[in-house]
Amino acid sequence: MRWNVFIVGQDPLSHRLLPHLRHAEEYVFHPLLSLEQVVHAAEYPFDRLVEEALDELARFEGPVDAIVGYWDFPTSGLLPVLRQARGLRGPSLEAVLKCEHKYWSRLEQARSVPECVPAFQALDPFDPRAVESVEIDYPFWLKPIKAHSSHLGFRIESAEQLREVLPLIRAGIGRFGRPFDEMCAHAALPEEVAAITGHHCIAEAIISDGRQCTLEGYVQGGEVHLVGIVDSLRDDDHPSVLLRYAYPSSLPEALQQRMLALTRRFIARIGFDDGPFNIEYFHDAQRDRLWLLEVNARLSRSHAALFRLVDGAPHFQVMVDVALGLAPRMPHREGPYAVAAKQMLRVFENGRVERVPNEAEIRRVEAAFPGTLVQLNVAQGMRLSELRHQDSFSWELGVLFTGAENCEALEARIAQCRRMLPFRIAPLADEEGA
Known about the structure:
Blueprint: E1 3-8, H1 12-17, E2 27-32, H2 35-40, H3 46-59, E3 66-68, H4 75-86, H5 93-100, H6 102-112, E4 120-123, E5 140-144, E6 154-156, H7 159-172, H8 174-184, H9 191-194, E7 201-205, E8 211-220, E9 223-234, E10 242-247, H10 253-270, E11 275-284, E12 289-296, H11 304-311, H12 316-324, E13 339-347, E14 351-355, H13 359-368, E15 373-376, E16 395-404, H14 407-420, E17 424-427
Parallel strand pairs: 1-2, 1-3
Antiparallel strand pairs: 4-7, 5-6, 5-7, 8-9, 8-11, 9-10, 10-13, 11-12, 13-16, 14-17, 15-16
Helix pairs in contact: 3-4, 4-5, 5-6, 6-10
């Protein structure tokens, strides 16, 4: 039997990785909505996307066995709505929102794992008295209730700085806020959450000191399973900027088990079942304290190639098998390398792209180091400010996935790959009228 699996916003990376699933011959993958519609679009009309997706599925002549996806909103919200409409297995929309709605998620975390939740509050950026409504101490992080890639996220040091950023937030928050509110209209929200819309922000005490990692897992039949833990390495000058993911985590096993225990308490609280998830944690080594950063009701696409390099298959295996009701056939430590990394190729000043690695240079890198993948986000002639989904401090030119036999060899391999992948970015100050 072959299963028909529909992927919302399928991208070139998954095209390259899905053939490496165990029992790949048992799956037939079909795209559902385009990458342009659910990732690269300027707007995300949620209800229209639902209607178009259901129309696509209705036109399909065979059985629809599963609907999966690995992107953040709107994909993360489309999945439970589409699955419910088609009678397919997956977490409920309310359980997904208890992960994805940052304020609701913090409320549920505070009731299940209070020891790892920072001080937080909702904040309405359109309230004329927004600055006066702040109750938590400065400094704090301020971010929309729903966004991703640090979009409109700011570290706020003072009331004066808050006044400066509020107009920026008001101008841009609707891009995700409007479709997020459309999605929430499909759910039964408690009164304390219904008042906090997609046009609100959440303010949170700073917890970004220490080691950061992401626990990748899944729930099946009410039982939480660990897939793996990935370390996140950040820029020293801009702590919110990610530079690298590394797998497997180098954190002590006892600490990893503590994270898993916290995860099980939270997942049990929210009733999340039959789906993958990931939870980001910080570890404050001085106080030996774990902080919960955020919860995502999906696996991380950024980690898929790392699992393939170390374990022998991308963890798309878990996403697909759980959606089909199968016990995941995910291998463990059967890949070609002991360690792997996703290296973000970033710059911290805006500019115009004058040169990117050509296809021959990319193929040379991928051939020299088997399993290595290179993806470019920029093209010659574009301004970096044209890139979507960037943080507030940097621009990601591309990414490199590679592995090695140990951490020292991995560092050397990343450095060598970067030398083989030349970019040239011209400062905008060099352009007349820039």
